[in-house]
Amino acid sequence: MRLLFLAVLRRHTGNAVTAQRVRDHLEAAGHVCILKDAFDFESPSEISNFIKAENLEAAVALHLYRGGRLLQGNGIPFGIIFGGTDLNEDVNQGDKNKVMGKVLEEARFAVAFTESMKETAQRQWLKYRKPDRSHWLSYARFMAQPHAKDKIYVQSQGIATVPNTAFNWNTFLQHSEINQSADNLHVFLLICGLRQVKDPLYLVDAFSEWHQEEPNIYMVIVGPEVDPVFTREVKAKVKRTPGVRLIREMAQEDLHAVMKNCFALVNSSVSEGMSAAILEEFVQLAKRLVSDPALEKTIVANGREYVRKYHSWQEERQTYRQLVRTLERSPED
Predict the structure, then answer these.
(1) Hey, which residues does 191 pair with through a beta bridge?
(2) Cβ distance 207 to 243 under 8 Å?
(3) Which among 18, 35, 86, 169 would be 20 to 30 A from 9, CA to CA?
(4) In a 10 Å sphere around its CB, with 0-12 CB exposed, 13-18 middle and 19+ buried, how is residue 244 labelled?
(5) Is the dihedral of CA 127, 128, 134, 135 positive or negative?
């Protein structure tokens, strides 16, 4: 089957990484999956022309509003993957809420990363509606369709990390202008695109105060420059703040190597669907914020086991393979 996959594809961002991983799952199942940036299209009509030109049979969108709204009424079956900001922010805007409700009604399936995300969607849109008994066709359609609540599936993000084995931690520290021995250094890592919703400045002052008390404490922010205006604000703040460094985006393999060497990962996002960076940190078994070796061992072991059990890359692949099969069938099957 020829599939269109719509997502916001800013380089080295969570959505882009998730979209590429899911695309790999679908292509491994034998489908042709064309991954496109939702921001490249301004209207459903542009998507319709692209679908016809590429002879596409079905579609998947990551983010109910940014991707999903473009797929409405295009005549091909599609599924949705909730992104995070669609349920945490866009849902509070009346016009977007209405559009997303219609998208969800038309979608064959929807994937939530957590049970709480599923519950949020159900509270917003998947309410029981009474069929219109006054018109036989309306009633027949209602009775023929499974209830909308049955179309939302929970599938946590599957995580697989491949750190760059040639990565040099000392070189990274030098480039970050951290001129201390790595043996006695505690680097706290914040990975995010530079935009307001990720709130990277939230912890800056606290870490700077800590650094001035203990000079071996550093906070390093790593991520792409997404919002130009906000990026300038972040750069200006970091430049005048001791103990805090800002590093531009990195290749994923290098980023995984940094996680492996850092002291701990932090996250200050005000809207998070499911932070892949935090899950990857568990996999890499970075050092924990505990002084008791036995407790540290327990926390790390439990964290790693949790990721393996609930964020299995293989299970995620199987889930998307099964869901995409629903796009091959007619709604009545």
Answers:
(1) 222
(2) yes
(3) 169
(4) buried
(5) positive
The pLDDT tens digits of the residues spanning 110-144 come to 999 888 889 989 888 865 444 445 544 444 433 33
Residue 157: Cβ within 10 Å count = 23
CA distance 113 to 22: 13
**Distance in angstroms (rounded) separating the CA atoms of residues 298 and 23:** 35
Segment 249-303, tens digit of pLDDT: 888 889 889 988 888 888 888 765 545 555 455 444 444 444 556 766 676 677 6
- What pLDDT is attached to residue 310? 67
d(CA 191, CA 259): 10
The mean per-residue pLDDT over the stretch 27-38 comes to 95
Proportion of the chain in helix, strand, coil states, percent, rounded to 5: 50, 15, 40
Which two tokens mark 100? 């997303």
Where do we find the tokens 């590093």?
247
CA distance 34 to 2: 8
How far apart (Å, rounded) are the C-alpha atoms in residues 93 and 113?
22
Helices (H), ranges, 159-312: 169-175, 204-213, 228-239, 252-261, 276-284, 293-310
Pinpoint the alpha helices (H) of the chain: 14-28, 44-54, 85-88, 94-106, 115-124, 136-144, 169-175, 204-213, 228-239, 252-261, 276-284, 293-310, 313-325
Q: Whole-angstrom Cα distance, residue 242 to residue 191? A: 19
Q: How far is CA 296 from the centre of its chain?
A: 28
- Lowest-pLDDT range of 87-91, 242-246, 268-272: 268-272
The position carrying tokens 């990551």 is 62
pTM of the model: 0.68
Residue 273 CA to residue 210 CA, distance in Å, equals 30
* C-alpha span between 10 and 51 (Å, rounded): 22
CB-side exposure of 266: number of CA atoms within 13 Å? Answer: 21
Chain centre distance of CA 158: 11
Rounded Cα distance between 269 and 196, Å, is: 9
Cα 71 to its chain centre, rounded Å, is 20
